[in-house]
Amino acid sequence: MKKILIVDDEVNIGLLLSRFLTRNGFEVNTATSGATAMELISKEPYNLVLCDFRLEDTDGREILKKIKAIHPTTGVIIITGYSDIKLAVELIKLGAYDYITKPLYPDEILNTINKAIETQEALSKVYKEEPGNPQQKQQANAGFVKEKFITGQSMVSADLVRQIELIAPTSYSVILTGESGTGKESVAKTIHLNSLRKDKPFIAMDCGSLTKELAGSEFFGHEKGSFTGALYTKIGHFEMANGGTLFLDEVGNLSYDIQAALLRTVQERKVKRIGSTKEINLDVRIIVATNENLQDSIVKGRFREDLYHRFNEFSIHLPPLRQRGKDILIFADSFLKEANQELNRNVTGFSDDVVECLLSYNWPGNVRELKNVIRRATLLTEGSVVQIKSLPLEISTFARVSAMETAMGATAAPVGESKRKLKDAAMEAEYETILKVLKEVNFNKTKAARILNIDRKTLYNKMRGIKIE
């Protein structure tokens, strides 16, 4: 029998919930304070905790943190009388299964509880792999399959791994958000490989490259002769992913018409090839990725709100590389090993000034850009260590440009106090302008030259004058 703990300082609500859940086959205990709840939880584990957010001696956030520290796999549902989206997102990122508002509807809450317990059981399988403290297992990522996913050691990386571990064993649809190049497909594959579907297909689909005319056929497939040019029967991506996971990259680029067709398929879990009358039952987990703000797209009428909510059973935000601190060096080392294998080289590491450049650069292209930079540097390196001359100009000069820009700003003086010659002042103003434009366009020389209204050769000559070549 599944055990549930209800934590609510309103005795009547706790009593009503207890009776309702007992009638539905659960073993139920109640607590009217956070202290009592933690006392009960420390004595015995529960499958699920239903906790009111506002308690007299604490709040649901603190209770959630304490429960996850003691029993990471225990499901927690937070109940509140106030709807607050930001708070809901925060609680889910802290490990809550769901966040529901009063009034409570019996069928709805029972459905949520059953799903939460299903998730809890799936997570428990991972934690039974090895003996020991559950928290230690969580920190060691017991049973966590990484494939080519590099975890890193920063706090943001640890939080990302924790979210993947929590969501992977469930059947939830997931939205992955983040800048281009942050590794959304790698995260999607990692979720798949740590799910119960890991032995089934993982099918990736780039929605950004789809035309309106081709999208229907790519998603749903078509029968031979169903339209001009349909020379053979085509199996769509939904059908290919049946039993496994379908990853839709850049989903925000889909046309509104295709979104409507997609909504029907996601809702009904059935697909029909174009030109066919036969419906095919689907068992597909959907993971979507976007570098856009889909909620803004909803407001602007470019994305369907109902489809967004179908996808958004759980969301994970991938931090940009510039926010991951010394994880950059972990990524760089991993990419160096890959490049050595690919190019049959034996480059062993990076010089100190290269390390400084890698850590100071802002990486607008994120992990994808870093990987390309390391592959290029490995190819160009003549010795056993990557030297600064093997890095692209925008990276090797970024730290120096920032330092010069700061110095110029710090030493600027009023015109009346300056005794410099007019020519020197004009040159310094020109250099400041060049530095500013280069930083704004992330050292894209073509864009910088266009903005400055000079050709690339002239720009390079002026950059040499500033000693940033």
UniProtKB/TrEMBL annotation:
Signal peptide (UniProt feature, chain positions): none
UniProt keyword terms in alphabetical order: ATP-binding, DNA-binding, Nucleotide-binding, Phosphoprotein, Transcription, Transcription regulation
Gene Ontology molecular function: ATP binding; sequence-specific DNA binding
Source taxon at top rank: Bacteria
Domain called Sigma-54 factor interaction: residue spans: 150-379
Gene3D superfamilies reported for this sequence: 1.10.8.60, 3.40.50.2300, Homeodomain-like (1.10.10.60), P-loop containing nucleotide triphosphate hydrolases (3.40.50.300)
Response regulatory domain residues: 3-117
The keyword DNA-binding appears for this protein: yes
Protein name: Response regulator
High-level lineage: Bacteria, Pseudomonadati, Bacteroidota, Sphingobacteriia, Sphingobacteriales
